[in-house]
Design goal:
It is built from 8 helices and 2 strands; from the N terminus they run ααααβααααβ.
Length: 217
């Protein structure tokens, strides 16, 4: 059953996976090329700055990849109100587990391409002794971020259904407005402590706020 479900997921999402994989595989090489043009002799500071900028782009791609994989594999099921899924001879829990495992396997492909692209893209960059290549670490973070996005969006859709996008926008709006209201009213809240609790390890969300730099000290 798992092989058949994985084959269906692959058929629905292969175009998305292929497009994302190719794009993030060539991004490191393009970034290093821009660094060679915009900086003098690959200065260490310029390389790190370009790597940090690349990391921000890769983080956004990780979030979009998780969303796209979910939408491409679940769109037909949700539009049909899961009638076909409920007719399968397995429990809903087993189906969800199989679908999650299949999605994680598919999300490994873009991360693998990012690792290969990062290694190739930095192979011809003359690095000083103080800088190192972290292509594998960035690829692993990409996989974690895209997988976490997939799981969070899946949970949101399961609880809110067709209103998932609206609920997400409301939560995002509250995240922007609430700190402003607190600052205006002068309420003493440890906002910095709360943010660190969310953004720093061992919080799973910390993967989105960590430093994604293929070349770093």
């Amino acid at each position: 059953m798992f092989k058949q479900m994985l084959a269906v997921q692959w058929r629905f999402s292969r175009k998305t996976i292929a497009a994302v994989s190719v794009l993030i595989a060539i991004l490191p090489a393009l970034t290093m090329r821009l660094s060679a043009v915009s900086t003098v002799n690959y200065t260490p500071r310029g390389l790190v700055q370009q790597s940090i900028a690349l990391g921000l782009v890769l983080g956004m791609f990780a979030v979009l990849t998780g969303l796209f994989i979910y939408e491409s594999t679940w769109r037909n099921d949700t539009s049909g109100k899961n009638v076909y899924l409920l007719s399968l001879p397995i429990t809903w829990r087993q189906f969800m587990l199989n679908r999650l495992c299949g999605a994680l396997l598919l999300l490994l492909l873009p991360a693998l391409c990012l690792w290969i692209g990062g290694v190739i893209g930095t192979a011809f960059v003359p690095l000083p002794p103080t800088l190192h290549v972290y292509a594998l670490g960035v690829a692993f973070r990409f996989f974690l971020a895209s997988s976490l996005t997939y799981c969070l969006w899946s949970a949101l859709v399961q609880f809110s259904g067709q209103k998932a996008t609206l609920v997400f926008l409301v939560v995002l709006l509250l995240a922007i407005i609430v700190p402003v209201i607190i600052a205006i009213t002068g309420v003493a809240l440890p906002l910095e402590t709360i943010f660190r609790w969310i953004a720093d390890p061992p919080s799973p969300v910390s993967v989105f706020f960590s430093r994604w730099a293929i070349i770093d000290v």
